[in-house]
Amino acid sequence: MILMKHKFYLFALIGCLIAASACNQQEQKMAAPAALAKKPDYVDPFRFHKLIEVSPGEDYDVLSWGRGSATTGSYLILHSDSSGKKYTTTTGDLDGSIVDVYNSDMDLDGNPEILIQAKAKDTSNYATIYAFEFNNGRANKLDFPRLTSSQRKGYRGDDNFYIKEGKFMREFPIFDGNGKDAKPAGQKRILEYGLRGNNFTVKQLSRDSTDNKTITTKAASTAAVTKSSSRSSSKSEKKETTSKKKSKKHTEEKKTKKKNKKHHRKQQETDESDN
């Protein structure tokens, strides 16, 4: 009975939100166009709402809500399958506030993925991703991978997420130093996320300062090997030239000896005939 009351209040609040949104749209049509874009007003306890239409008749309303705190609350995913007359709700605890929501099908299995980007209000603006894959109206929670030690090197938040060619992309600026002394390095790290067997795959697409150091070290090593090889080749050539010279000298000496010997024999024969 208590659960039914909670559901009644929840859907009543959602109804109020939709009604208020419709009223706001009507008022905006009647009113003169504003100079600056105004943030949408949500009825408490709701803070965020985005509608994602995956296909005609299949919609996902993503909301965040909660009273008494701006840094914690809950997210709510309302899946409407109007053609199949199926309506499901997925909810969970939310750390921070929702920045944006993305939709993709990274593994090309026909089941949509909903990715919620949240940002905690701290000094580093770290990002959190709540990921789900929906199959026949059922939500399967996916574990979004944390940054590895090499990926976290120089990371200070300020992530930018987007969908590109069916992949979930992430890029963020790299900083040199730690704490308050950290300064922008003028480079960005770009990661590409895919999905295989309900597990995320990660590929780094960018070459940053760490990669450049590795490349420099490899280049220096290659240069050293080339130089060493050049020296060895030069020494080998010198040895070969010396060996050729010795062989030539030895041949000439043999020819000279043979010539002298022949001359000596002729001289002997001449002397004998004179006698």
The name of the CATH architecture of the domain at 39-216 is Beta Barrel
**So what's the CATH class of the domain at 39-216?**
Mainly Beta
Sheet of most strands: 4 strands, antiparallel
Q: Quick one: overall form?
A: elongated
Distance between the termini: 152 Å
* Unreliable parts: 1-6, 27-32, 212-226
Radius of gyration: 39 Å
**Total beta strand runs:** 12
Number of helices: 3
Write down the secondary-structure element order: HEEEEEEEEHEEEEH
Helix content: 25-40%
Class inferred from helices and paired strands: alpha+beta
Mean pLDDT: 76
Q: Briefly note the CATH topology name of the domain at 39-216.
A: Lipocalin
How would you write the strand order of the largest sheet? 1-2-3-4
**Portion in strands:** 35-45%
What name goes with the CATH superfamily of the domain at 39-216? Answer: Periplasmic lysozyme inhibitor of I-type lysozyme
